[in-house]
Amino acid sequence: MNHREFKKKLLKDPLVKAEYDALEPEYQLMLAAIDARESKNLTQSELAKLVGTSQANISKLENCELNPSIAFLKRFAEACDMKLTLRFQ
């Protein structure tokens, strides 16, 4: 059984699906952060210097272990020559 098949099987359980869905915003932020950094060919350490934080905080953000402030995310976006945009759906 590969990862996709295993995930599909797990998500049939309503409790697992509810938890998975609840974590979707954090997962999307993690992916966006990694994509932004990689699009600028920056290491975590290089980006940390531009943001004014530690490499550990960049790693935590990319591993969903950091609950960043809006100010932090704005600095992150600016360091990647991007603009932070938030929306509710």
Describe this protein's structure.
- The protein has 89 residues and is mainly α.
- The chain is 66% helix and 0% strand.
- It is built from six helices and no strands.
- Helix 4 (44-51) crosses helix 5 (55-62) and helix 4 packs across helix 6 (70-79).
Write the layout of secondary structure elements.
Elements: H1 3-10, H2 14-22, H3 24-39, H4 44-51, H5 55-62, H6 70-79
Helix pairs in contact: 4-5, 4-6
Q: What value does the average pLDDT take?
A: 95
Fraction in beta strands = under 5%
Helix count? 6
Helix- and strand-based class?
A: mainly alpha
Helix and strand run: HHHHHH
The proportion of residues forming helix, as a percent range, comes to 55-70%
- Which residues form runs of ≥5 with pLDDT under 50? none
Spatial extent as radius of gyration: 15 Å
The N- to C-terminal Cα distance equals 35 Å
Total number of beta strands: 0
Note the overall shape. Answer: elongated
Give the oligomer, counting copies of the same chain as homo and different chains as hetero: single chain
Main sheet attributes: strand count, strand direction, barrel closure: none
What's this, in brief?
The chain has helices at residues 3-10, 14-22, 24-39, 44-51, 55-62, 70-79. The protein is mostly helical.
Properties at a glance:
mainly alpha, 89 residues
